[in-house]
Amino acid sequence: MKLLLKLIYVVILPLASLFTTVWMIRENAGVAIISINIGILILLIINAVNYAALFNNWRLIPYISYSFIPGIGFLIGYDKHLKEFTLIFLFIHAEITWRDKKSNQDIFNEYLEKKRHV
């Protein structure tokens, strides 16, 4: 339910207002109606930013970390233990997870893995 509320207030309402404003401009609506709709759009965007900031522990999008690697490759992988996806496309290595941030233990384990490979 929390995810649905955040999705409505942060994504759906601002996009609906934006599409309505563009539609009104294309259909040659009156200047007053377009001005009111642009004001509503600005208020909805401010509301979306505030809503996203206050309820930042509700995840809508995953945490993505990426780095550049010195090689060319293509890979799509999934780690069951860490519950994250790994993507390698040309020179970019990306890890996608739904955790807020990595724990200290995860960071330490990555450091040890990098030391082993060097």
3D architecture notes:
The chain is α+β, with helices and mostly antiparallel strands and 118 residues long. The chain has two domains: 2-54; 63-117, no CATH class. The chain contains three helices and two strands, in the order ααββα. The chain has helices at residues 2-26, 31-54, 104-117, and strands at residues 63-79, 84-97. The protein has a two-stranded antiparallel ribbon. The longest helix is centred in the N-terminal third of the chain and has 25 residues, at 2-26. The mean pLDDT is 78.
Features:
elongated; 118 residues; two-stranded antiparallel ribbon
Layout of secondary structure:
Layout: H1 2-26, H2 31-54, E1 63-79, E2 84-97, H3 104-117
Antiparallel strand pairs: 1-2
Helix pairs in contact: 1-2
Largest sheet: 2 strands, antiparallel
> What do the pLDDT scores average to?
78
Termini separation (Å)?
A: 47 Å
* Rg, nearest Å: 21 Å
- Order of H and E elements: HHEEH
Can I get a quick summary?
It contains three helices and two strands. It is of the alpha+beta class. The mean pLDDT is 78.
